[in-house]
Design brief:
Blueprint lengths: L1 E3 L2 E3 L23 E2 H4 L12 E2 L2 E2 L15 E3 L5 E4 L8 E6 L3 E10 L2 E11 L4 E6 L3 E6 L2 E6 L6 E3 L10 E2 L4 E15 L2 E13 L1 E5 L4 E5 L4 E5 L5 E6 L7 E5 L2 E7 L6 E6 L2
Antiparallel strand pairs: 1-2, 3-5, 4-10, 6-24, 7-8, 8-9, 9-10, 11-12, 12-13, 13-14, 15-16, 16-17, 18-19, 19-20, 20-21, 22-23, 23-24
Amino acid sequence: MIQQRDEQITYESYGYARGGVKKDAPIFVAEPMTYKDAKAGENIIQTISNVDAGVITRGALAEKAKASPYIIHLSDVPYQVSSAMNKMATNLIVAESGTTQQSLDGFVMYLEFPIKDRTAIYNSTYQSKGITLDNNYVYFAAGTNLYRMPLDFSSLTQITGSISAINGLTSDGTFLYTVNGTSLYKITISGTTFTVSTTTLSFNVSKLAAFNGKYFIGYDSTNKLLRVFQKDGTLWRSLPFMEPTFIGAITYNGFVYIATQIANTNDTILTPLLI
């Protein structure tokens, strides 16, 4: 059960049976189809030669964790995961997997079921460094290169600029943010170029993961702490985090979900944290 203020709330009061199974939950059955089929011959990526056509699979990979209605399970996502805090994209989770070949996956949330809805492949000689989205675009980084694509993954554009490092990405709906140790970088995009301004932090953040409208959430791998802090750099909380892997975080239904890799798999578990 979940304690909320003075009211005792059970899984049943949210319409769940014990074990985290949704009562009368829909059963997803669908045939995989490509965007080429769905969009009358248009490839999902149209202009960049080293990006393969994407695949859309509606419902076939929908999964649900059994422990809690609030735990989300993503298949085949071992590296980066993020979501938008903005209303238009609040039910979309994006994930990035791989090193020299990045798989960009979009999961649409239906109730508590993540449905793998879109995929694109990007070949790069750089290590994946972060992914985020706002109302209009998915942004991802390879090395210190920054790219964007529409939420339907229909094209890809490089955004040029100079930045010393990218360690995770997040967005407040207007700007992008990343970190480099004790530096918080605000990235301003104009057309296909970006500029950077810096706020100095009094603590270390190894990877920036999410913004919930009030606080940034990042991970300090040296001290094994989640750092929760404001835009001006003021530290609000440091929370112990002893899991062996930190993948990222999403915002969904008022919670911040911390993403960790499931041991000996390429899957990610998203566990809620109420901030």
